[in-house]
Amino acid sequence: GASSFMIHNMLESLCLEDSFENAGVKLKRCSVDSELQQWVWKERMFLINVHTQRCLSAFHSDPIQTLDCDGQDDLQWQCMNHRLISLSHSLELGVHSGSLVLTNTGKNTRWKSLDQGDLCHEKLKKKILFSFVQTGSRKQRETDEFPAKEDNMTEEEREYLRWYYRTED
């Protein structure tokens, strides 16, 4: 299974939390016990909330919501340099006056995975694992869209990857 992670706004120090009854995605104090704050990447472009099983959507921006994951364009996100960019609108997920917005200003649009740091790296881990399963070796990584920077890894990151691959066998 995929490891879930929390999506943390670097300026506000709050996490994305889905809600029931289409009440929208909110910024809340980060709580590792909240399943509504746990997310996974699917197919490297959809962000799925673990608890509601719905995808982060750019279809509505007032409020930002999750919708059923049916593959439509509004549900697709690109992750680049700590930013989440809607593929359908080319707008970034950001925060304005304490609320989630879609913006093109680049202000307050930096996100990270609370436990691992790089939100985009969460996608990389799955791609590496997929390559490993498919080819039987990790050499495939060199051709990946997000090349692994093993030289820049901390010992803690290396230890996590060792654990990650060991538990996925």
Automatic annotation (TrEMBL):
<dbReference type="Pfam" id="PF24562">
    <property type="entry name" value="CysR_MRC2_N"/>
</dbReference>
<dbReference type="InterPro" id="IPR000772">
    <property type="entry name" value="Ricin_B_lectin"/>
</dbReference>
<feature type="domain" description="Ricin B lectin">
    <location>
        <begin position="4"/>
        <end position="120"/>
    </location>
</feature>
<dbReference type="InterPro" id="IPR035992">
    <property type="entry name" value="Ricin_B-like_lectins"/>
</dbReference>
<protein>
    <recommendedName>
        <fullName>Ricin B lectin domain-containing protein</fullName>
    </recommendedName>
</protein>
<dbReference type="InterPro" id="IPR052678">
    <property type="entry name" value="OST-beta_subunit"/>
</dbReference>
